[in-house]
Amino acid sequence: MMKQLVLFLLFSVAVFSQKTTETFESTTLGEKREITIGLPPSYEKNTTKKYPILILLDGEYLFDPFYGALNYGAYWDDLPETIIVAINQNKNDERIEDSHFDESDGVPSEKGVKFFEFIGGELLPYIEKKYRVAPFRIIAGHDTTAGFLNFYLYKDYSIFNGYISLSPELAPDMETRIPDRLKTIKQPIFYYLSSADGDVKALQEPIKKLDENIQTIANPVVNYKYDLFKGASHYSLVLYAIPNALYQIFDAYKPISSAEFTDKIAVLPSGYVDYLVNKYDILTKNLSLKVPVRINDFKAIEAAILKNKAYNELDQLAQIADKNYPKSMLAEYELGLMYEKTGDPKKAAKKYQNASQLEEIGDLTKDMMMDKFDDMKSLIPKK
C-alpha cells in the first residue's frame, strides 16, 4: 500500500511538471545534440522565483529517477524545486566519445575537450539566458560520465557547486588529483561519491582510494559524502544514491524537523531567533537560494521561546515576520504574545486588535485574534 501511495504521489507531481525535449545545435561540437529539460511545477505560476540547475549526463536514463526524486522531495518541501537539463548520450558510443581523455596525462582529449567546453561555454549560458536560474549548479553522471564530470574540478574556479559521481570510472591519477584540488579550493563545494559491493570490480579499488584520500581533507568549504551500498549492483546503486546525494547537497534547505527542534533548538539557553536567522543565512550563502522563512519554522522558534520563557525574543521574531510577511498578521501576533506573556494585557490587546485587521496566515485567523483581544481586554484593571 505504501509503495502504491509513493508511486501515485510521484505520478501526480510529474503530471503538473513540465518536461520537454529539444535539439541543441552546438557550434563547439559541430553537431546537433538532444537535451531534455524538466521545469518545476511552480515555474509558470511563480514568475519571479529562481531555481537551482542540475546538469545530467547520461540523461536518457538518469532523467526520470532524478526528476522523480526532486519533485517528490519538493512536494514535501524537503528539497528545492530544481531545473533539470539532461544531455542524452544514447547514440552509438556517444557517452564514451564525449568523455574521452588522454591515457598519458589523464585530461580530456579529442571530443572530450569539445564536450567539456560545450557544457560550460554553450549549454549553461543558453539555459541561464532562457530560464530563471539561481547561481547554484550541480552536475551528475554514472560510471564513464561520472568520471568525466570531475574534470570541472581541475580548473582554478569550479563552474559547478555540487558534484554527484555515481560509481565513476576514474581517469589516470584522478584519485589523487581530486583530493589535492578539494584540499585547496576556496569556494564551497558539495561532493557526493558512491559505489556498491556488487559494483564493477575494476572500478571499486580506484573509488575506494579516492574516498580514502578525500577523507584526509580538512577543508571546511568541502561538504563530502561517500556511500558504499551493500547488496547493490553497478546499476541498482543509482536508485539508492540519488536521494542520498540530493539530501546531502540540499540539507540546509530542509524545514525544522521535530528532531532538530528537540536536539538543537529547545536545548539552547537563549538565541532561538539567532538560530533561525543563521539557518536561512546558510541557505542563502551555501545554496544561493532566497527562501522566505517558513511559517512552521516561525512556529517552532516561537514554541522554543515559550518553552524556555525567553519572551523578549518574540520582539526579534516579530521583526523577521514583518520582513518576510509584511501584509500578514504574524508580526503583530508575535508582539501581542510577547506582551501577554510579560504581563501587559493592555498592549497585548492592542496588538491582537491590530493583527485582526491584517491578512490571515498559517493557523492564525481573524477570529482567533479577536478572541485573544477579548481575553486580554478582560484582564485590564477597571479604572
UniProtKB/TrEMBL annotation:
The keyword Ligase does not apply. Pfam families: Esterase. Keywords: Hydrolase. It comes from the Bacteria. GO terms for molecular function: hydrolase activity. InterPro entries: AB_hydrolase_fold (IPR029058), Esterase-like (IPR000801), Mycobacterial_A85_antigen (IPR050583), TPR-like_helical_dom_sf (IPR011990). This is Alpha/beta hydrolase.
